[in-house]
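Narrative summary of target 7.
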Amino acid sequence: MHKMLYFMVVIVLLCPASYSFGFSDRAQDCSKCHILKEDEALTLLRNFAPNLKILEIRTSPVKGMWEVDIEVGNKNYVAYVDFSKKYFLPGPIFEIKARKNLTQERLIEISKVDVSQIPLEDALVMGDKMAKYKVIVFDDPD
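Modeled conformation, tokenized:
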């Protein structure tokens, strides 16, 4: 009897969650109604890292959340904030079927360095200057 009652309570509690994102099959864009501005994100996340900088905010691969690209101390991070602006998820999101770490892929994307912007006037060049691939090593002699 208790198992049946427990089962019914669980079903009733899960029913609202099953249709809460019912727009997905109707091509509804949730970002039209739900907006997270940079100043809001700063206010929400400042308690976790006072000196953070917001790089970009976009809808996340998970419905009902924003992906917030942040920089703290010259390091980039990806965090997630839900549409209700009550929950913050600093950890990675994995796509189960594809077995991909979506957060890591995004981190790689936002952390890329444009090598053409690195000044090489005072660089010590070893090997062919016109080589197809180059390795740039940074060293601090002090």
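Helices lie at 2-19, 38-45, 102-110.
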